[in-house]
Amino acid sequence: xxxxxxxxxxxxxxxxxxxxxxxxxxxxxxxxxxxxxxxxxxxxxxxxxxxxxxxxxxxxxxxxxxxxxxxxxxxxxxxxxxxxxxxxxxxxxxxxxxxxxxxxxxxxxxxxxxxxxxxxxxxxxxxxxxxxxxxxxxxxxxxxxxxxxxxxxxxxxxxxxxxxxxxxxxxxxxxxxxxxxxxxxxxxxxxxxxxxxxxxxxxxxxxxxxxxxxxxxxxxxxxxxxxxxxxxxxxxxxxxxxxxxxxxxxxxxxxxxxxxxxxxxxxxxxxxxxxxxxxxxxxxxxxxxxxxxxxxxxxxxxxxxxxxxxxxxxxxxxxxxx
Amino acid sequence: xxxxxxxxxxxxxxxxxxxxxxxxxxxxxxxxxxxxxxxxxxxxxxxxxxxxxxxxxxxxxxxxxxxxxxxxxxxxxxxxxxxxxxxxxxxxxxxxxxxxxxxxxxxxxxxxxxxxxxxxxxxxxxxxxxxxxxxxxxxxxxxxxxxxxxxxxxxxxxxxxxxxxxxxxxxxxxxxxxxxxxxxxxxxxxxxxxxxxxxxxxxxxxxxxxxxxxxxxxxxxxxxxxxxxxxxxxxxxxxxxxxxxxxxxxxxxxxxxxxxxxxxxxxxxxxxxxxxxxxxxxxxxxxxxxxxxxxxxxxxxxxxxxxxxxxxxxxxxxxxxx
Lengths: 322, 322
Description:
Two copies of one chain form a homodimer.
Chain A: H1 10-20, E1 29-30, H2 33-39, E2 42-47, H3 57-67, H4 70-74, E3 77-80, H5 84-96, E4 100-105, H6 110-118, E5 122-126, H7 130-144, E6 147-148, H8 155-161, H9 163-171, E7 177-181, H10 186-198, E8 203-209, H11 214-221, H12 243-252, E9 255-259, H13 261-275, H14 281-291, E10 301-306
Helix pairs in contact in A: 1-3, 1-8, 3-5, 3-8, 5-6, 8-10, 9-10, 10-12, 13-14
């Protein structure tokens, strides 16, 4: 087992990359001259919406599941998640051939429930509060002996998420900044360790919905200020910042900025219209930051992590029924 | 000027490829293990939804515009089109720096009107009948001296459309069949000439909406049986089969099959959900054929041309407001 006492390290990200190779996809990077013109910058979109299970969460979950000993793995894995981590964990467990027990809030989008079910995960529903989720997960673990794989406050998960930035910097070495959505902080912390290790000059900027801005407030305060009632369309970013991610973020991340839901929806729509790809609201958050102010990024070569593409196609934010 | 007396030839497709190189995109080919399992075949999706102007029509329009003499080009180009050819022609004209005059039926989707406007095309609206479109186009040509570039009944356009199959067979040489949507026949005729010239053993199959099945009926009858009132959600495939395309299709195409609008919508939705890409209804028509019977294609390596990705995102066929 790797030494994890010192928090997330570059070694853990490199080990994750070897461990998950061939089990998740190397996703493409897309560009758009139209969106470049709108943003006044050179944009490189890392398409984790095309990733296995439909989001970057496949990386961390796969790393965590395959890091378990055979004895641990045999008893299965468990988690509580708004959706993408749940589907990713169910898939990783299936790839390893072990059971996955999933606690989901009862307001999870139908597409995300279906994702878990598709991979054979056993779903237990609970109220949409962090306390209810954690309590239901504890009960499951006690009953089954499964290992709890937290969606983001877990070094193996954080290390796995960092592999997206490793790939991105290999695909576009000339990047000057990376914009990354932030919810619980798993992706942002992994991205920061990977990017700053590979290319210290790269600016790493977190982008967060204004209606779930605990990471931005915590970053400024220097201590975790939890979110109580998140209110944003970006369902993947409603979680509260985790302690292990925050320890990395406060040390390595250059800035965390927030965007309104109105900008998120506008950004999401432009990505669908112009790039002809399906991304979920959370994935549009980095591009939304470029539709706002961020004047210091004008003219720069920017990587944006399109974190996922799972959403209910009946309920789009720009339709009457949305 | 090439000799065009003998209809569409392989030489014309090769010339088109050279002429449009660097002016349109080489589009990627995507695969999906989930859709492979659903269809019981190995599917290779040629993503013309990612093409310049959002559809394969950029290929034919660019070839036609750049085949004009400087003197002809200076007076501009004109066309009537339900949308994708119009946007493609407006873009090609802008790339060459000449005017484009576009006649559009007044029921064209908003996204397709916007496509023409974006590239600076001058739009004239008319009734949604072939007669009204042709008459309005004739008037425009008489008034401006522009060259009429027919959306499909034109050898330069057909040759350009054939370049998608040239690329596809270079990207996936082991293909055994190509499924191609058919409306006016420009794409299918170009595809047939390219595919049968490069690899005679490849089966080329046209797929058409049941509510606009003139190509299927004409293919069986051996003569053109025009469509009077097309009724299908696939707005790009409502046109009547052209004479020049038909001359190729009856000689080289192996079969033309039809699919219901219900299957088209189901296919479109699966492509969005699973592949995370935006395709318009017409583009989903080939995959719809695989959701139906087509048992002779089970287990085969099949290329499918995803013809375009332009549609009104407010009006999706599976939403209440659609």
